[in-house]
């Protein structure tokens, strides 16, 4: 922001205008306090950032934990038997399986074994995860509130099931700012050609925060960002001259309107101009060695694949992008799960593990936080007909598995457990428990708890990063969330 052009008019400036025009606004003020370790809330000691950035590998659709990470031999033994009434305990079902005459237990078709010094259980579907298993922190006791995709994904990204709140990356951009003035602080990569539950741009929107904090989607192909390149016949010097004139007009408008959004518009035009150089360089995977691309898998050479996006995510992290969000759809296996999940793992297993290895060998895993998981888990019973060769699983918010790596996370541990059916979170003795978001339950991790913990690792006290909107102070974790200190190394 060029402050020399800003004329202070005490008669016209109200509180909104003042904070919108000063420095980086409320975000800078919040960060200054956070970085100084001045927060005195119960969940925060003097905060020291262990991570600088996040790469979130979001597996949209809900991966089945029983077929990937949460080994349940009793589920296999009782395959085809009815889900015990005491296990369900009256919990709600989706409309897709609520009318089924029976809820037959579906054991996994895939073999499991323990790997690494940590002895973590992995399905045969994840051979490459074995190579990094001791770098991972498995959280097997995640739980959420929404039972359908759209509200569940929205809840994970924004802290609310209702659309309109700022996304995680937007909160970080607002609170911590950018590490590279030539690239957005929040970038989104969506795997191409994935037909599944739809994704909406509002998932990476800035909500009621300044529009400069919204995520920028990079696409595969010639132009990573739409409308960034100059049209035919327009040169760089011509674009620069046009932007200078446009900026002058916008500043005149700002002096009259005192609308902070006008300043944001100017900043975004300038960012777009710088991105004309920075984006082609950052997205040029031809600069990567054959050895690196081979590590991520053959698909890393195909733009828009999950593997290629993982390589790009590492390149963006190297260049100071604060929050890199990958979306990979296709995990919504209501039927034909054995074939469907096998294909999903072929597309994601090698690249996910390679990203961890790549960051580690470059010395970046220490301050880069990698997160892998979806919006909820899947049921222990089969949706639809259970056969000897096929089954499906419905949505299940009561328990599911995610993993974290790097960025101050404790490596080589498994946190939390589930009952013998992977239907409920369980205590240390294996008894089912029913945690609530209003009070932290040891061993259970609510979505807001995970968000609070990730912010803590970035040096941010989650209750301090707020924005006043419509008379209320909002935050990513709403009025809940606890830092899970057992996950922190």
Give the SSE map.
Elements: H1 15-21, H2 26-35, E1 53-59, H3 73-77, H4 85-88, E2 112-115, E3 120-123, E4 136-143, H5 149-158, H6 168-176, E5 186-190, E6 216-218, H7 236-257, H8 260-282, H9 290-296, H10 306-318, E7 323-328, H11 337-361, E8 368-373, E9 377-378, E10 395-396, E11 400-405, E12 413-415, E13 417-418, E14 425-426, E15 445-446, H12 447-457, E16 467-469, E17 472-474
Parallel strand pairs: 1-7, 1-8, 4-12, 4-15, 5-6, 5-7
Antiparallel strand pairs: 2-3, 4-11, 8-11, 9-10, 13-14, 16-17
Helix pairs in contact: 2-6, 7-8, 10-11
Residue stretches low in confidence (pLDDT < 50, at least 5 long) are 1-26, 32-44
Major beta sheet summary: 9 strands, mixed
Q: Would you report the number of β strands?
A: 17
Task: Give the overall form.
Answer: globular
Q: Name the CATH architecture of the largest domain.
A: 3-Layer(aba) Sandwich
CATH C-level class of the largest domain is Alpha Beta
Helix content class: 25-40%
Euclidean distance between termini CA atoms: 38 Å
CATH topology of the largest domain: Alkaline Phosphatase, subunit A
Query: What order do the helices and strands follow?
Result: HHEHHEEEHHEEHHHHEHEEEEEEEEHEE
| Rounded Rg | 23 Å
Please state the structural category: alpha/beta
